[in-house]
Amino acid sequence: MSITKDIIFFLKKIQENTELLAPSIVGELTLSQIHCLSVIGDIENANVTKISNELEMTTGAITKMCKKLFNQGFIEKYQEPGNNQKKYYRLTESGQKLYNFHKKIHDEIHEDKKSIIARYTEDEKAIILRFLNDVNSMITNRFKGFKQDDDKY
């Protein structure tokens, strides 16, 4: 029973560390805003629909985020000549600096994870993958149907 308690403890610690440490690195921005900036930096002609699809968030949430990022000076809006309908976003100089910083951290963490995973056998990796998939499914299913603005709590 102790190993179960330890696993749950470490899953909680991973979540807490992510929630506590990541925002302190980037200041006032949320993780969602950082990821929105990252998508804008990664895709050509980033618009609300493309960003929404990439982040699997509603267009309303993306619109709000982009408005905040615009007001903070991290992104700018533009339109293609002859097309006044579609609005696109691109990074400003300060947005590009934050994008580069975020990408560097992600790349370093990715390499760290690969080196940790390399320590395990293929059978162990299969068990770890199944476990992580089960935890992810549990979380996804638990929170399906809830929205931030719901009066359910």
List the helices and strands and how they pair.
Elements: H1 2-26, H2 31-42, H3 48-55, H4 59-71, E1 75-78, E2 88-91, H5 93-117, H6 122-143
Antiparallel strand pairs: 1-2
Helix pairs in contact: 2-4, 2-5, 3-4
Keyphrases for this structure?
153 residues; mainly alpha; 69% helix
Computed CA radius of gyration, to the nearest angstrom: 19 Å
Reading off the top of the CATH hierarchy, the class is best stated as Mainly Alpha
Low-confidence regions: none
The CATH level-2 architecture is identified as Orthogonal Bundle
Strand order of the largest sheet: 1-2
**How many alpha or pi helices?**
6
Oligomer: single chain
CATH topology-level name: Arc Repressor Mutant, subunit A
Largest sheet, strands/sense/barrel? 2 strands, antiparallel
Helical content (DSSP H or I, runs of 4+): 55-70%
Q: How far apart lie the N and C ends?
A: 32 Å
